[in-house]
Amino acid sequence: MAIYLIVMMCTLTHAGFGGSRVVVALYALELGASQFTIGVLMALYALCPMLLAVYIGKLADRVGPRLPMTLGTVGVALALLLPPVFPGMITLYFSALLLGTSFHFFFVTVTGIAGGIGGVEKRSRNYALVSLGFSAAGFLGPMAAGFAIDYLGHLPAFMMLAVFTVIPIALLLFRPGFLPKALKHEGDSTKNSAFDLWRIPKLRNTFIASGIISAAWDLFQFYFPVYGHSIGLSASAIGTVLGVFALATFVIRVVLPRLVKRSSEAEILTYSIFVAACAFALFPFFHGAVTLAAIAFLLGLGVGCGQPMSMSLIYTLAPPARVAEAAGLRVMVNNFMHLVIPLAFGSVGAAFGYTPVFITNSVMLVAGGFIMRRNNAPDPDSRV
User: Fold this and answer.
1) What digits encode the pLDDT tens for the residues 149-159?
2) How many CB atoms lie within 10 A of CB 356?
3) Domain ranges of the chain
4) Alpha-carbon span 103 to 75, nearest angstrom
5) All residues at 6 or more sequence positions from 350 whose CB lies less than 8 Å from its CB, including other chains
6) Which pTM was predicted?
7) Residue 87: what are its φ and ψ, rounded to 5°?
C-alpha cells in the first residue's frame, strides 16, 4: 500500500510542477518575453536544485522522508499561487526558482526511499511504478495546463495546477505513517563528501547516462512550447504534443521490465540516447501538430528509460546509508544540465533560429551515445 500512496503523491505533485513549465513559458511569451528570457526562466528551475540536491539527500537520509517531502509539496503549491496574486514577469522569476527548489525536496527524497519499500526484491518494481507515476503526471500536467490556458487564461491555470498538491499535502501532514523511517547508520555521514560517490566508476557511468538523457528531456520541455508558439500552434495543441511525449514515456516504462531481462541497463540507456537523437533531428522539418506529436512519441520512447534505469542502478550501487545522497548527486548532475541547456540553446535559438537548436542537441546526443558505448556496463547485482 505504501508504494501506491507514494506513486499517487508523485503523480499529483509532478502534474502541478510539470504543468507549470507550460504556463510559465506561455505566460512569459504573452508578456512579451524573448527566447533568451524563457531560457533564463527555465534555468531558474534548475539553479537551486543543482546547488542543494546533495544536501537534500543528506537531510532525507538523516531525518527521514516526511520533512523534505512536506517542504517540497507545500513549496510547489505556494510557487504556483504567486503569479495569480502578483502578476508580472518579476514574479515569474521568483516562482520558477521556488518551483524548481521545492519540487526537488520532494523528488530527491522519493528517489532515495522508493527502492527500499517492501524489500530488495521489490526494488525494480518500485522504481518502475514511481516512474510510471511521473509519466502519468507528465501527460496530465501539460494537457491540463494547455486547456486551462485556452479556456480560462494564464493566471487561473496556475491556480488550477496548485489544486494538484492538496492531497499530497494532506497525506504528509495528517497520514504520514506509510512513509519509511530514516535508516540508522554508524558515524556521521554528513562529514563524507558526495564526490566520493562520483569516484566510484559504476556510479559515475550512471550519473553520466542520467545527465545526457535528462538534458534531452529538459530541452524538449523548455523549447517545444517556444517552437510550437512560433509556428502557430495553440496552447492546447502544444499541451497535447507534450502529453503525447509523456504518454510514450509511460508506454516504454510499462515494457521496461521485459527489456531489462534481455539487455543490461547500460545497453538500454545507450540505445535510448540514439533514439532520442533521431527524434530531435526530425523536429525542425515538420510543422503539423499530428506529425510533431508522432515525433514527440518517438522521443518519449527514447528518453523514458533514463529515469527508472538510473534510479534503480543508483539505489543498488550506492552505500546503503547514502542512497538519498547519491540520488541527490544524480539530481545535481541533471540540474547542471537543466541550467546550462536552456541558457545555451535559448541563446542559439535567438541568434540563429530553431533548426540549429534541434540539430545541435541531436549531435550532442549521438556523441554521448558513443561515449556511453565505451563505458563499462554497470553491474546492478552488487554494491560497490
Assistant:
1) 989 999 999 99
2) 14
3) 2-173+199-374
4) 7
5) 34, 35, 36
6) 0.71
7) -65, 150
Contacts of 310 (CB under 8 A, 6+ apart): 206, 207, 209, 210, 213, 269, 330
Q: Which residue has the cell 561515449?
A: 371
Give, as one character, the DSSP assignment of residue 377: P
Amino acid at 9: M
Residues 162, 150: Cα–Cα separation, whole Å: 18
Contact call for residues 41 and 24 (beta carbons, < 8 A): yes
Between CA 294 and CA 299 the distance in angstroms is 9
- Closest Cα partner for 214 from 335, 368, 295, 106? 335
Look up residue 285 and give its three cell numbers.
522539418
Positive or negative: CA dihedral 266, 383, 310, 53: negative
Among 277, 283, 329, CA closest to 303: 277
Q: Grid coordinates standing for 140?
A: 496530465
pLDDT value, residue 381: 47
Summarised one tens digit per residue, pLDDT across range 258-288 is: 787 787 767 777 888 899 999 989 988 888 8
Q: What is the pLDDT of residues 84-108, one digit of tens each?
A: 999 999 999 999 999 999 998 998 8
Question: Residue 46, Cα to own-chain centre: how many angstroms?
Answer: 10
Round to whole Å and give the CA distance between 17 and 82: 14
Q: Which CATH number fits domain 2-173+199-374: 3.10.180.10, 3.90.1170.40, 1.20.1250.20, 1.10.260.40?
A: 1.20.1250.20
Chain centroid to Cα 101, Å, comes to 13
